[in-house]
Write a structure and sequence with these properties.
heterohexamer, A: about 375 residues, mainly alpha, 21 helices, about 75% helix, B: about 140 residues, Arc Repressor Mutant, subunit A, 2 domains, binds sodium ion
């Protein structure tokens, strides 16, 4: 009977407190949003279920929890802390990204750069709120709106914050349909939103082949610390466009990226163990994340308006909002906002170009912030 | 430490300013270089094959019967992400509504073309799914 | 010449003794059963070939054998000793399991629980035979008739017994068509075997969606040590039924589970290196494994008969035998035995419900036994 | 130590008894909770959409032409595991024999339906295979 | 400003020297050959892009480079240094290889053995050039013309040479259409090249099933150190021919082998970091690699001619050149050279038989060389 | 140390000689054993099924209508690697040229058979691809 009693004292029912309940509600909300609202289900569903799994209360010290050596969750989580899952996800992303509309209109790349300003503004805000520089840099990267990039940088600079930063980044990515449109409308005039973009020119295979090679050499020479992300990203893209290794490109864009996505989301979710996650810092991170996203959206739009002062052929400034790289959520929002003003305005392809340059931009920013805070 | 003091103490202004400059410069340069690709590719081609008469990319203007699939693939690139917004499975009416709502031309024909190209497939439950890469 | 001589003294021919020959015959038997008889080939073929590979005699100390650091086999085997392969297999199993017939008739879950009694009876027998508690618990779990669960628990409690316990578990799972029918017939009357089960009611999508979430919270709160198995199992199932992450569910139920199955079977086979495997303990384990399977089958059937004393709508007691979870072997046997009495009796779907609750039941038992023997 | 002594010494009876109780109780509770799902789901639905008139699951009764594939899928769930018993590849006669042997109704029609649904496929060598998830 | 300056001093532009430029040109050449010439693209493209990634100059000591602990590249490279990638590639190769033409004409296996003579000749040459025995053995295995085998042995014996040896092996495999035909023509007469090979007899399923089992026992008993390669190779083949585990065989021959190929090529390429790669030794290795390939081709052809002295039914000596195992490059060359003399001469299937025995042969040689140099 | 001295010092001759002997012997023995497979398999079969009359492999001589796919699969084994030499995608003319260039019989029929067997497939851009394992 003693044994039974002891067992019962080790059940989750006995060990649970309000924090576990709270986190389980968060996890359930993520799952609800992913299934009922279909907000980024590939990200939110694994994370949401991971939150449930990570917040089953358990007796510590026997290799069960994600933060204990020898636990299965700990081994699976190693792909996060080592930075391998983000790299592998980027390999798959590269193998799925089509750069032809970007190559047809290289100016759009500037919008992908401008949208990164949210990162640096958030860096200052986080420092001002009292975060240490490495923490502040990890929080700032949320403004890049790129989940794997955020997780990668945080794993390198402030691994104790992986949980809250990942949850904040993915939450706001899921909430893009709610965050971005008001900002886009606030900062643009009706006539600006109605600007049409001409059809992109056809792009030759050679250009597509040169791009990943030139992109790698240029970006990684500039910020060598972005190698782990951009190295695999451009590698995946070259496999795709080369056309000579189709079986590898197909595996990279299916089995490999799916596997990394499943374990990345699941273990990041499980890393939100209540006692590690529910701290004052997490609240600060969520607040700063919202700031980061809004500034990023705004700076992309405003930069497009500034560009228009110098350009003959005006750019639709809505496209600036697609520079935040939440693929393809933000591109879809841009398209939909544009269509509300003028149903004949097709911004999607152009917005995708900004999106993919936003991915590159935030990976470079991660490299920059990492090298500022090394050692 | 909080506020501007903290920013100063941790070299915040320099980090933010330098970071912003670097990423803007970097992508601006990359943007400039890829804008030169067409010239560069042309140069490369001339060097490689000095014979000037034959057009370097004979497939640039495919014959009429090939055009159709190309256009479908183009249309698929454009509409695909929109269709994804309908969820994994959707009814045909929802798709029609979407196309009309967004004023896309010839919804019926486009849908039929997608169907023929295998991009649009019917599940066992009668719903439809969008297959980006038909096998 | 000296070198040649020395090389020849290091060949398997020189180093082999009768034990290697014995084990190679065992491996060949497994391969024969898997190919010629098609007994559980997904399990027996990798294990059988692994036994061959693991029993090629070799000179020790140079990083060749599965028990030597730095060997390739050792690295691949790490997925077994760490418990990762079983977890990953459960992810795939979850993504392949259809719980709708269980949801339609929840009472069948009790049969899945009853069939676990074999585990606890075997625990007592193993202790009585002189095994230490951790060993006894690992042996007992064979009665759950679930390969990955057995390997997981043994890896945690008695890693030196992984080989014999895995071999015993899989052997008896392959021999289900021989072990179960006589017991089923012995314990039931002809009229009991002829009981028809009404068609299950249709189950709504919402029920399917709630099940993995409720199942996780309930089972893992009760036995937190079953998180590594049931966490991934219910996660896989939610991916399947959600319908919003089909690409992840598909990869989980193909590439991921196949890869884990291949390496799990191959390395478990290779871990049966003759000098580690051929001990008195292995004989005891095989004997106890047969006991465990028989008791499990019997207790499932008898429990169904007891239930029938209280139920208006009688359950066919044959279904109790499907609670042992050897998916889908035992369900098929139940169906076939039922059909021998009455060709119009279709028990398969109901038996599958017992099967899947048997999987959950033995994972919970593994959690319970682990937590009884921690520390 | 052996026998009852060993069981006593290692707290065997307590482990076996407690373990059996826990797993039985646990699954009994889970069984009870899932038996309440239909009610709970109904509750949930009412809360979520207070309008009482529209049926919550309009797809519950699919029209006649959709019914067929559903039934095939149902039949496939039932027969699939049996067919797997024939091995990866099998001859059509073996399948017929199996169906007759197990007294399943209309073997020919069922097999034809499976064929049409892509569940049954012919290999290059003329044998047949069962594809649980036709692509 | 100071920070900006410091950052600029850490960019690749500042840190680069002529060696990086040189290596980047090498990488670009590999990519060019793989895409424009379609020389072995599955190997050359990942390696070529890996060379680019590995030669972006970076500030050392912060976990970026492939030779630094904690870097993502280092973790991915672990599959190379541990020998796991080659083993896994062999699993996939086994699941893709059809041994029926070899089984139909077992004599062709001797040509696969003869072509390994290049290995032992190169061993002597490398020793004579001053390489240490372990280095010499690793260089010699280039003559086996099998990428994963070379990488495996080098990882075990001389891990500091993985880069140059892999690059040499893959370079010459890509250059087979240039290296082999002159040697083949030099060593054979016109009438020899015109020898027709009769159609192979049909092979029964039982023979196909016995082969991987007998092959494993025979080869691995002879050279136990070849277990990591041949164990998985024959396992993959048994999965393929058994026909009872098709889903496993399919995953092994697609997702698994593709994943291993991608990461193997990419990280081997990245391991050619200029300061590690550009040494005098690398030049020696490239020179010896060319010798190894030529001797291997020649000895295969000559051995076939010697065999013909004793055989009634003459073998076309061109087939000897296919014993070098560069699958399927060398088999194709043999076929094409044969067809130039007589367009009705179909050597391809026979050449594939030599090819696959060449794979087995060089894996055995790797085992032999490893065991000669253990300890 | 260099040259013959180095070889001697490191036991080079012994390694090379022993290595060559071992691999030659090993593969010679394996070659011999597999040459005995047909006999061995026959032995095995007789033991296993003592009834002498029924042919052990009834599928050895498939009926006429099955023969065709078998031959296609055979031809595919032969031609596949050659076709791979044309690259991932190729035009039909290139394939014809290859067949003619290599004097293969009946290029048109063979190509049509490959097409029917699903081994040869057309991409959306009108090019052709060779699918070794048609799904
Ligand atoms: Na971004
Ligand atoms: Na069980
Ligand atoms: Na070779």
């Amino acid at each position: 009977m003693e044994l039974l009693l002891q067992f019962l004292q080790n059940t989750g029912y006995y060990l649970a407190d309000y924090r576990h309940v709270l986190m389980i509600l968060v996890g359930a909300t993520f799952i609800y949003l992913s299934i009922a609202k279909e907000y980024e289900p590939l990200l939110l569903l694994p994370i949401g279920f991971g939150i449930l799994v990570g917040n089953v209360p358990f007796f510590k010290g026997f290799g069960l929890g994600i933060y204990e050596d020898n636990s299965v969750l700990h081994y699976l989580y190693f792909g996060v802390t080592s930075g391998c899952y983000p790299s592998i996800v980027f390999l798959g992303l590269g193998a799925m990204t089509d750069f032809s509309s970007l190559l047809a209109r290289p100016k759009l790349m500037l919008l992908g750069a401008a949208a990164q300003m949210g990162i640096f503004f958030t860096l200052l805000s986080a420092l001002a709120l009292g975060f240490l520089p490495k923490e502040a840099a990890s929080i700032a990267i949320i403004g890049g709106a790129d989940g794997p990039t955020s997780i990668f940088l945080t794993a390198k600079l402030a691994p104790h914050l992986i949980g809250p930063i990942a949850i904040a980044a993915y939450s706001y990515m899921a909430l893009i349909p709610i965050i971005q449109p008001p900002i886009m409308r606030l900062l643009t005039t009706r006539s600006e939103r109605r600007i049409h973009m001409p059809d992109p020119r056809p792009v030759s295979r050679k250009e597509l082949l040169f791009f990943p090679i030139v992109g790698l050499l240029l970006c990684c020479f500039l910020a060598p610390a972005s190698i782990p992300l951009l190295g695999t990203f451009f590698f995946g893209n070259l496999m795709k466009v080369s056309g000579v290794v189709d079986r590898l490109a197909k595996t990279a864009s299916t089995a490999i990226v799916d596997t990394a996505t499943i374990f990345l989301g699941f273990t990041v979710g499980a890393s939100t163990q209540a006692d590690v996650f529910l701290t004052g810092k997490s609240i600060g991170i969520f607040f700063l994340g919202a700031v980061a996203f809004s500034i990023a959206t705004g700076s992309g739009v405003l930069f497009a308006k500034i560009l228009n002062l110098f350009l003959k052929e005006k750019i639709n400034p809505l496209l600036g909002a697609a520079g935040v790289s939440a693929v393809p959520g933000s591109a879809r929002e841009v398209h939909l906002v544009g269509q509300k003003e003028d149903p004949n305005n097709f911004l999607l392809m152009h917005a995708m170009a900004c999106n993919s340059s936003g991915v590159i931009g935030s990976a470079i920013c991660a490299g920059i912030l990492w090298s500022f805070n090394m050692g | 430490m909080y506020g501007l003091d903290a920013i100063d103490a941790h070299n915040g202004w320099a980090m933010a300013f330098a970071g912003a400059c670097i990423v803007l410069t970097g992508l601006a340069v990359l943007s400039f270089i890829i804008s030169q690709f067409p010239k560069f590719v042309g140069l490369f081609e001339k060097k490689a094959q000095p014979a000037p008469t034959p057009p370097p990319e004979p497939q640039a203007q495919p014959p009429a019967d090939i055009q159709a699939p190309l256009e479908i693939s183009r249309a698929a690139d454009v509409y695909g992400p929109l269709i994804l917004a309908l969820g994994e499975e959707f009814k045909l009416e929802a798709l029609h509504a979407l196309f009309r709502e967004q004023n896309l031309p010839h919804p019926h024909i486009t849908i039929r073309n997608f169907w023929n190209a295998g991009l649009l497939q019917q599940t066992e439950t009668g719903a439809f799914v969008w297959t980006a890469n038909p096998s």
